Amino acid sequence: MKIAFYTLGCKVNQYETQALKEKFIDKGYEIVEDTEFADVYVINTCTVTGLADRKSRQYIRRVKRINADCITAVIGCYAQVNPEEVGAIAGVDIVAGTNEKNKLPLYVEEAMAQKNIIPVYHVKDYQELCEYEETGSITSMESRTRAFIKIQEGCNRFCSYCVIPYARGAVRSRAKEDILSEAKSLLEKGFKELVLTGINTALYGMEPGFYQDEEMIVDENGEQRKIYGIEVIVRALNALPGDFRIRLGSLEPTVVNAEYVKHLLNYNKLCHHFHLSMQSGSNAVLSAMNRNYDREMYFEMVNELRSADPRFGISTDIIVGFPGETERDFRDSVDMVEKVEFCKVHVFKYSKRPMTKAAQMKGHLAPEVKNKRSEELIRIAETAAQNFYTRLSGCERMVLFEEYDSKTGYYRGHSDNFIEVYCKSEEDISNTFARVTMDKPYRLGMLGTIK
Ligand code: SF4
After folding, report:
1. What's the pLDDT tens digit per position in 23-38?
2. Superfamily assignment of 2-124 in CATH?
């Protein structure tokens, strides 16, 4: 049997698709590309924006044109939040929500046996999503160098624009021993970078009753202190032997603060790059978003990181056009982008999402205003990133090379502070670390010289 997967959205979705692929391979299926003929198509959807829903629908409609008799299984966040809408699309056989991935092989077998004419739904109410669904350790990734490790599920922050808590359910963390055993097996397979991912990784282990006993350590100042949250996992992974590094997929400023990130800097395998979603530079908008920090607290975290390492890489997400966002508010976001010099800014136009508070708010802005602000902020963010790169010229960073880039004739990799780096090399340096002197901005990254 041939099966194809099409994945939208975040690193967690990509991790879950990989885990599913391995389950179907164990059952004797052959994995084919999502453009090829297959007996089964699995679409792992995203619903973070209206555009994500549209892309999910486009692909769902496409698979029946490739094979009219295929089984079409739609899983993931769009299926969880809007099962009826998904099920109404012609040709959908299975609609499976969050926490239903482990059972998907069974659902596919049932669909093949029963040849139902109407879709079969496997979707629980998001408030029932309280168990961590252990999908088992993955053993490979598309990349040979970097592997994602899912450590956490769900979110309880309910930022007013965000649909994710309704798609993913309550905060629940993966057992530490499962994370460590997956990490060890991936390192044995030669992966050099472990990317910790989750819906809100900073909330790791924060749900009541997760820890039997508190973890106390003697920290860098010789003081006893309790560790919690993602530091527990970073500390455990940092202690594993071997030449590898740890990268955090994202870190929510709604959970961590300057003092917390300072502690994380004590772990030498942890990359000096954090994806700290700022969302807006305006305190009025941050408050309306229910993001329990203000621009001063965010900046304090940036200063803490940059005082430890002046070229600490910080990337972020910013929403423009949030309901009621004034020109003054937008200027505050521009100002933060110029001040922080993010290495990368993902700019999103506000998208009305079902069940969210912001959807009911007054002052929704016209698409033209959102488009204009988005274009302007993308331009300003690119200039700020170039300024950050220029400040890196002449500095040394550790780079993990991923592959030879035949188009440029360089080996391409990423520095610890998450800059794409291109270097010349006579020998094959794929999947190896090298100390590099950063030269000048090049493409979406920098040229460098191996020391
Ligand atoms: S922290 Fe806010 S933006 Fe992030 S997943 Fe949770 S609700 Fe969504």
Report:
1. 999 999 999 999 999 9
2. Methylthiotransferase, N-terminal domain (3.40.50.12160)
